[in-house]
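=== RUN LOG ===
request id: a7f3
mode: sequence -> structure
chains: 1
length: 150
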Amino acid sequence: MERSLVIVVVLGLVAAAGLFLVSPYLSLMALIITGVAVMALAIGRDASDLPDIEASLAEDARAVALRNNGNAPALQVHASFVPIGVEVDLPTLAVEAIHEEPLPEQVTEVKVVVTYRNSGGQAFRRTVLLSALRAQDDPLRPTFAIFGWK
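=== RESULT ===
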């Protein structure tokens, strides 16, 4: 276990033992709060060093933009545009950085296959189908037509 997790667990157990003398219910509340704090620290540790590359088609369909939306730089980025046959290799793509790759001609549809690694060497792969003829999916659109969404 990491040192910060051990410190939180020990402090939580000491607080629970002290509160047990006052009330067992307060002791259980302290244990629950300690458990939530430990889980939050563990999730935060797991969510670090995760690059996330998103591909999007330009308005005029003559370029593809690669953007790193993650919280770590992406290393050894390789993007293939199918069926055009264009391949892009980038040594690194920083956090919130955008790399726009021009296409040889205007396209209606293109499939982008992106592979990259984080600083720990973990490999990631994403495949996205981009189209100039249909709108991109809205991530905020609800699943069901509610509150005026059609």
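=== NOTES ===
The chain has two domains: 3-46, 53-131.
The first strand starts at residue 53 and ends at 57.
=== END ===
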